[in-house]
Design goal:
Keywords: Membrane, Transmembrane, Transmembrane helix. InterPro entries: Sec66 (IPR018624). This is Sec63 complex subunit. The structure is a single chain. Helix 3 runs antiparallel to helix 4. This protein has about 180 residues and is an all-alpha fold. The chain starts with 9 loop residues before the first helix and ends in an 8-residue tail after the last helix. Helix content is about 75%, strand content about 0%. It has one domain. The chain has 5 helices and no strands.
């Protein structure tokens, strides 16, 4: 008769747990390496002034909490505006890549900038919860601020257009009823 070897029931469980742990460690290291590579690539937007202002205020002592909250809202509004622009231009960038007009490095830089901006929004949510626990509406409020700023910019552009029209024609632009 063949000799039976006794294997503990824990052996397969130990094997599976070691494999899962190795996979988790690899995934974390891979993700952090990818994020580091993304952070090292040149970004589409040069500098985020509201972010710099927020961190300068945060390092300053005796800053009123309302000022920190408004700074983080300005930072979030800027990032949300950037996310809107990324989403707006993503299809065009993919089309340009597909037609060979831009290289893969430019497209990867574009996507990397988008991912980093989305990560910044997550960081903003964490910072907001540190400022005021359970402040869940920070991104919604920042989105409203970004939309209001976009509308204000368009209204200003309309005013400039009306002034230019008046200078060229000598007549005021008729308002539509």
């Amino acid at each position: 008769m063949a000799e039976q070897s006794s294997i503990s029931v824990l052996t397969p469980l130990l094997y599976v747990s070691v494999c899962v742990a190795a996979l988790i460690i690899f995934a974390k290291k891979h993700r952090s390496r990818k994020l580091k590579e993304l952070a090292d690539t040149p970004q589409f937007y040069k500098h985020n002034y509201p972010k710099s202002i927020y961190f300068q205020l945060k390092q300053t002592e005796k800053v009123p909490p309302k000022l920190l909250k408004s700074a983080i809202l300005a930072w979030a509004a800027e990032d949300i505006t950037r996310i809107f622009k990324f989403r707006e231009h993503e299809a065009a960038m993919a089309n340009l890549l597909q037609n060979g007009i831009i290289g893969e490095s430019v497209f990867e830089r574009f996507i990397g900038s988008k991912i980093l901006t989305e990560r910044e929004l997550q960081e903003i949510a964490v910072e907001a919860n540190q400022l005021q626990p359970n402040w869940t509406t920070v991104l919604q409020t920042a989105s409203e601020i970004a939309q209001r700023n976009a509308v204000r910019k368009r209204i200003d552009q309309i005013s400039v257009f009306q002034e230019e029209y008046y200078e060229v024609t000598g007549k005021p632009l008729a308002a539509s009823s």
